[in-house]
Each structure stands twice: as structure tokens, then as C-alpha cells.
Amino acid sequence: MATKHRRPAAQEQMLGLISGYWISQLVFVVAKLGVADVLAKRGPSTPEVIAKRVGAHAPFLGRALRALASVGVFAEGAAGRFRLTPLAQTLRSDRPGSLRSFALMMVDDYNWQAWGELAHGVGTGGSAFEKTHGMPIFAYLQQHPDEERIFAASMASISGTENAAVAGAYPFGEIEHLVDVGGAHGHLLGTILARHRKLRGVLYDQPQVVAGASKSGFLKAPAVRKRCTVVGGSFFESVPAGADGYIMKYIIHDWDDAKSVAILSKCRAAMAPDGRVLVVDHVIPPGNAANWGKVLDINMMVLTGGQERTREQFRDLFARAGLRLKRVVPTACPLSILEAVRA
């Protein structure tokens, strides 16, 4: 009987890590084509049928689907028909928890190109995105409204399961007036307001961002809409004053320490005397265990110049803004809620 030759385990694992970008590009392509949506409507189908629906080259599409099936995205069955798997279901555009928009944003060319300059960032401490595009990412998005629209949709998609976990983990009923600072289209705020019926809210973000809140539908429920105000502005200049709660999800991690302190300081100056600041972000744990936040941290390094932080780094950040870290509240998702009050 012939001997089965295999690579050493370490080589096999390293080859998978080296070629990881092949998979991310394959996911991006099928997400952009809408393959998962076609299979959801038609059921198991051949590459020829799928290609006709999405406008692709059938032989090449079939090879792409075969490769993705080898890592659990789609499955190939009888007569060369491909079907959805649980992983592929996350690429459908019509399901809660869809990650299709996140895939479209994260592997789009402007982000992909910036990651190509990771060595520049690690070598110099400079911004990979700015070296690639000549401007910071948020200025770039302002000049590219299509990309900004996909960016907003991607944030909503990644937050699909997170927001319910955040809304259920913290006693928002103790707050009367909550400002969602940098709240985009209101997905998080809408989820919190729907759960806490006496709470009033303010959605605050750049004017061109909150302009899309009405179309997104996150604040459209009558019981939510009548308790929510939408305000445009820059959190580097000011935030709406007088509230007893200011929440920021995936905001502080966008910025370096100096800019983060500036944002937190604006919240401290604006909040009521007994107010609180709630930062919803990853809290990096010690040790070598796999952790999504540790990898996301590199994405922030590349794209925004920001970072994910440890509990101690958050404590120091709050202190520089005249705040005191009171507690860290875990949630049912990987994010934590860091509650800070006046020092």
C-alpha cells in the first residue's frame, strides 16, 4: 500500500496563514456578486446557473466556489451543484447578522491597498492608509460617498448581534438622556431605546453621516422615533450638552491617545454633574490566546492610526481626560462596556 505523504504540521499551518488573503479575496468576490443571495432564492445550483444570474464567467466562478467549499463556505454536491452552508449564510444580504457589507468594505480596494503598506507602518510608526491615499481614512470617505455608504452599512452589519448584547448588558434604565457619540445611522441607539422605554436619546455624528439615518430605518419605530433627536457635528469640536450618559461604540479605537483624550474631554465637559461616559470596545486580555481584538488592532493601525486597548490603557486614557474608570461590564458578545465618571 502506498505511503501517504503529508507536509509537517507546522508547514501546513504556516501555508494556510501565508495564503490567508486568497480566501479573503474569494469571499469578497462572491459577496460582491451576490452568490449567497442567488442560492438562497434558487437552492443548490450549478456554476453555470449562478454565473448567468450574477453576470460571471461560469468556469472561473465554479473554481472559486470549489475553493471556498474546501474551507466550509458553500458545499459542492451531486452534479456539481453548490449549496449554502452556515458560513455562506452570513454572506446573504437579507438576513440579520449578515456580514456581506463588512466583507465588501473590508476587502475593497482602498482598504486592501492600505494593508499593502503595513510594513511602512510597522517600520516607521506612520499611517499606512495615508501613505497609500494621501489623506486620513475619514477624509477619504467624505470624498467618496459610495464607499462611505458601504462603510456605514458594514458597521451596521458587524453590529447586528453586538448591539442587542450591549443593550442587555448595561443598566441603561438608570440613565434619562443618552447621547450616542459617533452613532452613524443609529443602529445601537435604536436598539437601546427599544429596550428602555423611558430613555431619551440623541444620535450625534457628522452631518453627512446622520443624513442617512432616516433611510436606514434603525430609528423608524414610532416608540423610538419620538424619543430620539438627530444632531450633526464634530465630536472634536463639541458634543450635545446636558445629558447624563454618553456612549461611544467603535469610536475611541479609531484614534490615537491624543485624539481619544480630546473626544473624552468633550464628553466630560458636556455631561451633567452625575453623568457617565460609556466606551464600548474590545478590551485586550493578557496572554497568547486567539482574540479577534488583537487582530482588529492591526486593522486600526493600518486604516485609522487607532488601536484596541487593555484595561490599564483605558484607565490611563480616562484619567488624562479627567475621568475615572469605574467598572468594566462584559457583554454576551466580544465587546465590553467601560464606564467612566468624573475623577
Protein model, in words:
By secondary structure, this protein is α/β, with parallel strands linked by helices. The protein has helices at about 10-20, 20-35, 35-40, 45-55, 60-70, 85-90, 100-105, 110-115, 120-125, 130-135, 135-145, 145-160, 160-170, 185-195, 205-210, 215, 220-225, 255-270, 290-305, 310-320; strands at about 75, 80-85, 175-180, 200-205, 230, 245-250, 275-280, 325-330, 335-340. The strands form 2 sheets. A 7-stranded mixed β-sheet has the order 5-4-3-6-7-9-8, with helices on both faces. α2 (about 20-35) crosses α5 and α2 (about 20-35) crosses α7. The chain is globular, with a radius of gyration of 22 Å. The chain starts with 8 loop residues before the first helix and ends with a strand.
How are the SSEs placed, and which strands pair?
Elements: H1 9-18, H2 20-33, H3 35-42, H4 47-54, H5 58-69, E1 75-76, E2 82-83, H6 86-89, H7 100-106, H8 109-115, H9 118-124, H10 128-133, H11 137-143, H12 145-158, H13 162-169, E3 177-181, H14 187-195, E4 200-205, H15 207-210, H16 213-216, H17 222-225, E5 228-232, E6 245-249, H18 257-270, E7 276-281, H19 292-303, H20 311-320, E8 323-330, E9 336-342
Parallel strand pairs: 3-4, 3-6, 4-5, 6-7
Antiparallel strand pairs: 1-2, 7-9, 8-9
Helix pairs in contact: 2-5, 2-7, 4-5, 7-12, 13-14
Task: Note the main attributes of this structure.
single chain, 343 residues, alpha/beta, 20 helices
Tell me the total number of β-strands. Answer: 9
Fraction in beta strands? 5-15%
Average pLDDT number:
94
The succession of helices and strands, N to C, reads HHHHHEEHHHHHHHHEHEHHHEEHEHHEE
Alpha-carbon distance between the termini? Answer: 74 Å
Question: What is the rounded Rg?
Answer: 22 Å
Structural class: alpha/beta
Work out the oligomeric state of the chains in this entry.
single chain
Q: What spatial order of strands do you see in the largest sheet?
A: 5-4-3-6-7-9-8
- Spans of at least 5 consecutive residues whose pLDDT stays below 50 are none
Number of helices: 20
Shape: globular
